[in-house]
């Protein structure tokens, strides 16, 4: 089995064996972390070491969390420590599913085949933006592997008896590597499970869904993709910004702010992207935005180009910064926006009713109408 053979085994090394001991105050693994208690008012998404995350995934930490609820101690785990704690329950579930497959399900024919993997886009955060098909699959799933940017409100739609497993990534902390996620999906599909892979936005737009699909199909696993509203569309609608508009923007380009090798520089797209007749939408671009702005202006994009940054778009915790391109970085820093923040650059941003000049124009028009009405 892929999971058993390729993921670290709790008995494969002395360093992991010790992690199977019950948690206690004297057990402080290297690089141990602190639990943080969050609430929906603090973040609409799954934060990496929140108590809520471990309560949601309690089944896979069953023995340790039953004996030592996380709120009762300050140290929990490193990434490897977490994986070591999860392995017993993951293996147990695999065995149950394998036995069921070998018996051939209810008819006892012994002809059970591999399961399917569903790559499901959950949209930018607002559960009302889910597609009907996504909701149907989510509510019928037995096992769901979910990312950080699947909102808590969406996860609340999962059946109470379904099993959830967090595989999210944030800067500096990957609960699972991409290769480990591949192996988890493969392992459960091989024993006949229908696995749902939940991703924020659309699974095939900067979601690495294409990599997962390619890997699984090469292993003979059927993959079904259920699209979601990508953040660019959902958040633009929230702002009242048309991504394209006749006479203003004749194209739209989605960019990733991440460099594949990390660092402060975005991918080398600034020269081609500096088109005043196009709308730019930058995903995952907070850390590299200052460099991107300089490159765009250097390659000819006007410094006064309207721009917007939206943190946690479409959720109750949404925050918006509007500024000209040359000032956007400073305003984001001043407001201390955090990930996830989506960035819009282009003249269409000025069409938003939230753009300062639009509000001033609207206020002026209202005063004028009121004045005219007074003379009727």
Question: Quick one: CATH class of the largest domain?
Answer: Alpha Beta
What share of the residues does DSSP label as strand, in percent?
Answer: 15-25%
CATH topology of the largest domain: Cobalt-precorrin-4 Transmethylase, domain 1
Major β-sheet strand ordering: 3-2-6-1-7
Number of strands: 12
Mean pLDDT: 81
Q: Give a short account of the largest sheet.
A: 5 strands, parallel
Q: What would you call the quaternary organization?
A: single chain
Describe the model.
- The protein is an alpha/beta fold.
- Helix 11 links the parallel strand 8 and strand 9.
- The protein folds into 2 domains: 2-229, Cobalt-precorrin-4 Transmethylase, domain 1 (3-Layer(aba) Sandwich), CATH 3.40.1010.10; 232-356, Tetrapyrrole methylase, C-terminal domain (Methyltransferase, Cobalt-precorrin-4 Transmethylase, Domain 2).
- Residues 4-41 and 69-77 have low confidence and may be disordered.
- It is built from 14 helices and 12 strands.
- Helices cover 35% and strands 15% of the residues.
- A 5-stranded parallel β-sheet has the order 3-2-6-1-7, with helices on both faces. A 5-stranded mixed β-sheet has the order 8-9-12-10-11, with helices on both faces.
- It has helices at 2-6, 14-17, 51-56, 62-67, 79-102, 132-140, 152-155, 178-190, 209-218, 231-239, 270-273, 289-298, 325-335, 356-373, and strands at 116-121, 143-146, 163-166, 169-170, 173-174, 195-199, 222-226, 251-256, 278-283, 306-311, 319-324, 341-345.
- The N and C termini lie far apart (82 Å).
- The longest helix is centred in the first third of the chain and has 24 residues, at 79-102.
């Amino acid at each position: 089995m892929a999971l058993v053979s390729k993921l670290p085994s709790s008995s494969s090394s002395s360093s992991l064996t010790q992690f199977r001991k019950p948690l206690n105050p004297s057990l402080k693994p290297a690089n141990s972390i602190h639990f943080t208690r969050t609430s929906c008012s603090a973040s609409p998404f799954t934060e990496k070491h929140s108590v809520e995350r471990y309560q949601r995934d309690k089944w896979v930490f069953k023995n340790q969390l039953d004996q030592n609820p996380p709120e009762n101690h300050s140290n929990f785990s490193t990434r490897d420590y977490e994986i070591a704690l999860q392995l017993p329950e993951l293996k147990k579930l695999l065995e149950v599913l394998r036995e069921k497959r070998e018996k051939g399900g209810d008819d006892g024919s012994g002809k059970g085949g591999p399961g399917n993997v569903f790559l499901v886009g959950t949209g930018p955060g607002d559960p009302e933006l889910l597609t009907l098909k996504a909701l149907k699959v989510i509510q019928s799933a037995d096992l769901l592997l979910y990312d950080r940017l699947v909102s808590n409100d969406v996860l609340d739609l999962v059946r109470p008896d379904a099993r959830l497993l967090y595989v999210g990534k944030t800067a500096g902390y990957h609960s699972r590597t991409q290769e480990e996620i591949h192996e988890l999906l493969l392992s459960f599909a091989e024993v006949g499970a229908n696995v749902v892979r939940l991703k924020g936005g659309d699974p095939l737009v900067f979601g690495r869904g294409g990599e997962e699909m390619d890997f699984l199909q090469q292993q003979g696993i059927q993959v079904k993709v259920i699209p979601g509203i990508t953040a660019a569309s959902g958040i633009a609608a929230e702002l009242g910004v048309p991504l394209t508009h006749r006479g203003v923007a004749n194209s739209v380009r989605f960019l990733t702010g991440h460099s594949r090798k990390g660092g402060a520089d975005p991918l080398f797209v600034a020269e081609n992207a500096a088109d005043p007749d196009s709308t730019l939408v930058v995903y995952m671009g907070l850390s590299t935005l200052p460099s991107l702005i300089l490159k765009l202006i250097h390659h000819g994009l006007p410094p006064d180009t309207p721009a917007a940054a939206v943190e946690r778009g479409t959720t109750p915790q949404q925050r918006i910064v509007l500024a000209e391109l040359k000032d956007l970085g400073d305003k984001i820093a001043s407001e201390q926006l955090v990930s996830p923040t989506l960035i819009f650059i282009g003249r269409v941003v000025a069409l938003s009713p939230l753009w300062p000049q639009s509000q001033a124009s609207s206020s002026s028009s209202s005063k004028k109408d009121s004045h005219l009405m007074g003379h009727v």
